[in-house]
Records
---
Amino acid sequence: MTNKNSDNSAGKNPLPDTYSTRQEVLKNEAEHLENGLMRINLGPSHPATHGILQNVMDLDGETIVKARPVIGYVHRSFEKLGEKYTYNQFLNCTDRMNYVSSPMNNIAWINAVEEMIGINVPSRAQVVRTIINELSRISDHIICNTVLGVDLGAFTGLLYLYHYREMFTNILEKMTGARLTTTFNRVGGLEMDIYDGFAADVKDFLKVFPKILKDFEGLLIHNRIFIDRTKGVGAIDKETALSYGYTGPNLRATGCDYDVRKAYPYLLYDQVDFDIPVGIDGSVYDRFLVRNEEMYQSMKIVSQLIDNIPAGPYRVEDYHYSLPPKKDVYEKMEELIYHFKIVMHGIQVPPGEFYSAAEIANGEMGFYIVSDGGKTPYRVHVRRPCFWYYQSFPELVEGSMLADAVAVMSSLNVIAGELDG
Amino acid sequence: MRELSPDHNIKLKENLAGRFPNAGFKVEENRGIVVIEASRSSLIELMKHLKEDAGCSFNVLMDLTAVDYLDKRKSEERFEVVYMLFSSTSLHRVRIKVKAGDGDDVPSLVSIWKGANWPEREVFDFFGIKFSGHPLMERLIMPDEFRGYPLRKDFPLEGQGEDYLIESILIPDKTKI
């Protein structure tokens, strides 16, 4: 990308590379440049961008000569807020990163804090977390793959699968009270126990979903139009992908089998049986297939766990880290003091620095925490997978058609909230 | 994070000591991960070695960020740029740190990893640390008109108010009013 930038900027009419020119570009939807190219804006608010992100493109006819992503429209500076919030409060910020599957971000953050402190979480909480984590992965991949279809003119797939995504959202609503920003989990375990009938609800989902997913696949993967629009489009090879810091399904579509769940197992991933699907050429079609297969693998993981949710505590019973039961707080002195200490002084995390990675739907979400021993982190940095791979967007689309750029953007699954942080 | 084969860290330390006998890196282990403190001048050479040497093969730049130690380390340089490397073959990780003072340039890694482009711009955007050799050292996320570097510890959490933005955007030339 860098070389291309410098080459093009030497040309007659360089595309502005700064934010200040962004407003200038926005004056007109499209304008003709002196060198015969046409400059258009894809975004920031456009049906094909799925979120507030902008692409300024110079077109020669319908071919993209140069593309430049402009980001930052939904930046909320979570890293600055993280220095002020306690470890449990920062959970709210992680909800709003990848909002399509917010429980995964919650689990990733809580897992990082627990690893840093060294808490052994009760197995009931771990099992529920693993189940919710995998169901969230399914719900994220549903959005990505169906919307890819919508962008290519296949609306039916969305209608097929969205109804079943709703089943998972209902489970979340029953469990946490929220459908989108779930704030699932607390340090030390779950915030509250799972409701009666949780397992039955999940099993209902597992029973109906594979069939409908098969139907959805059948609509697209053998469809001549879909294949023509996606196969070989936006391809990237393994070395380049690694150089850009790709992780997750987009990296696996290039043939590299790196998955945090296998490489550094967290939660219960070392105890369940699942495979990592990989693609061949890293094109839109491969990414679609990898995500589809990951949904089957996630269901495989969930079905191994759902019958064996162990009884017992759902939260660690060390009241330095988790709130004591409310009944005890009212009746016993010691529990009252613990409650007060946690609410007022937060959870004490040992000083030091720590990096923890988790596999969220888009790839490796990493938290780099620097603690000075206080109730808030001294510095918290979030490695957002979108942010790393979206910078390769110009390289993926330059030289291809405008309509391909839409397909590439969809298949990369760029979530604006995660991208801007 | 799970610790992989522990003797890998020993081998890595020996490898570095063999390749850079006089560089004076501070090498330590933190929770099973080797942390190397390098100087700004030796950074590029070290990174190239870590990426290309067969004994290291850290071929992925996994994360890049900075920390402002303004009120912690008064005698030293205030910023610390942190790189996290990852090997897709051996699955090991290593962390490299470089100290930088206010106004110091840190060498850019874009020539080694293409993915360093945006994260370096992000660090510049939030901390004001410039990376020399970067193709486009400009703000990435904050507006160009923004003054100050928001993740510095002396930047107020509640911001600077909006007056300065209104002055610079809505009233470009105050003298005419």
---
Amino acid sequence: MLKIENLHAAIDGKPILKGIDLEIRPGEVHAIMGPNGSGKSTLSQVLAGNEEYEVTAGRVIYKGRDLLEMPVEERALEGVFLAFQYPVEIPGFANAEFLRAAVNAHRKHRGEPELDAFDFSRFAREKIEQLELDPKLLTRALNAGFSGGEKKRNECLQMTLLEPSLAILDETDSGLDIDALQIVAKGVNSLRDGQRGFLVITHYQRLLDHIVPDVVHVLADGRIVRTGGKELARELEEKGYGWLDEAVAAGADKEGRA
Amino acid sequence: MSDEKQLLDDLSRQKYKWGFVTDIESDTVPPGLNEDVIRFISARKKEPEWMLEFRLKAFRHWQTLSEPDWQKVQFPPVDYQAISYYSAPKPKKKLDSMDEVDPELVATYEKLGIPLSEQKRLAGVAVDAVFDSVSVATTHQEKLAEMGVIFMPISEAVHEHPDLVRRYLGSVVPHTDNFFAALNAAVFTDGSFVYIPKGLKCPLELSTYFRINAENTGQFERTLIVADEGAYVSYLEGCTAPQRDENQLHAAVVELYAHADAGIKYSTVQNWYPGDEDGKGGIYNFVTKRGLCAGDRSRISWTQVETGSAITWKYPSCVLKGDGSVGEFYSVALTANRQQADTGTKMIHLGKNTRSTIISKGISAGHADQTYRGLVRMGRNAHGARNFTQCDSMLLGDKCGAHTFPYIEAKNASTQVEHEATTTRIGADQIFYCNQRGIATEDAVSMIVGGFCREVFKELPMEFAVEAQKLLSVSLEGSVG
């Protein structure tokens, strides 16, 4: 469903992604791990369509279409969901209204009738119960004054409401306690239906105890330096990222020769 | 959301919904202003001698004044001799009920969505509709009259309640106040008069819809609201005007007078024709609005949502004379395209322990320029008086401007004045976040702006809050992306 080929991207002229190749088939959960600054978040932002990042080479095929040609909303409406590492705050904008606007935009795109405030409230409450979240989340302003954990829970709620085909979770686990972690895992696992794809970006292995990935990639200096099964995550946890320096050096060396 | 969407869809298909002209024979004087014109207006309205004198005194004073130029707006000079100062639909006879009102007039109101009909009564709103300058229908007058409320066109009040009108007219905004107040006092043709008797909380929200119709006719409303001791009234004013190529001058005066323990809440949603994208046409809205908290513990609250007019220039103010009196000003001003606004408030603290709150939200888009100008004056005897001012500006795009000129004068050391100000832009990150959830940029902007203005909207009566939110969405169309 998602095929990334030789993707290069830069911000302010500084190259961050230096040739990513990755393929996610329907139903697969891929984890991306790697040290800070390796380009994990950049990858998620580029896939979502953040214009601050410039794609300098490569292509991305999503459901048979050129993803990079699609505007941000269209990617979203076609099922690409990004759980932000740093969700923005919009003071005064009721979370419930925001969520309803998002859900209705998706429903409209699918040719379904929009939900009125009552139907939406019922729908949202169902999901809130399912995720064992605090219903007060709905009545507050969008992320304004939310704690880090609340923001992440809200991202997770949005994912559950929008039922994306491809969910990208950008360090959704960072800063979360174990309870919150389980909520996130629950959200993802409830959506796993053999059709949806997941790209789980994380710094730590512990999330992957709850969301068991099919494939684990290690990103370093803008490249995927290793790919393996779920045991790779555990190996990283034990050995740390120190060994990567070698791999990065090898990559740079390769670049130098090319 | 679906309502909003529907509204945007509807409105994107039309330029300015209310840009139609009703074809009604108008009784109009030739353009120009001199004592004869004033005598004509006064005679047409069969005014008593004291009223004519009031006008002539104002006119003579006006002749000594020149148009002020300190405001931060630009417009070509207004030719006051090119304006026609009287225009009234010709009534065939005195009207006893709505059924007798010119059907074309009624149709116009329907188009404007003015709820003059019975449904509106059920909604609890009495409507005094001003068409051009003469009020043609007043609903609920009887019901209100039973309770001692007077709510009628000021031209009628001059005849029916001369003592009240004479006592209060010009008591808050004297003709000597400023150029436009003098002009208004000389030539005003109609407006509303409200008197709430002692101890009565007016059970209806009173509303007036103003509408400028005949071409080249300046509109000079005069509104006077008096709340006697312990009385309370909420008054709503909403405006639309037909599309015009020529600029139209609007110089209204609104006076509020609150006795001891009385409260007056005055809300405005203003969406007059702002001119086209290049700034051609549009209304000049030069209004003097002031409330006097004359009695102790009285309270006056202004709430305004200004989205229309080519130029908006107004400072609804409170003079806090009574001890412990309270003044409030809540404002949302939106300027897009080439619109200009220089607006704010004045809070004049004279009495002890007086309090005032100013919440101003300015949104500027396109090539628009907007100024908040506010004065907080703590008088020598205003012991323990307090003011809180919050003044926020939001910019959309990089060609618009927002300016803040707060003036603070404190002559009493025991007073407290707080001023907070912020300027924000709608952030690309906020838009990206909304887009990533499938929400289109325009919808996102309208929702973010709605959030920005929430503090003010919640001060509006419910039905106005909805209208205000819609107006903002419509006014912001095409401002982003």
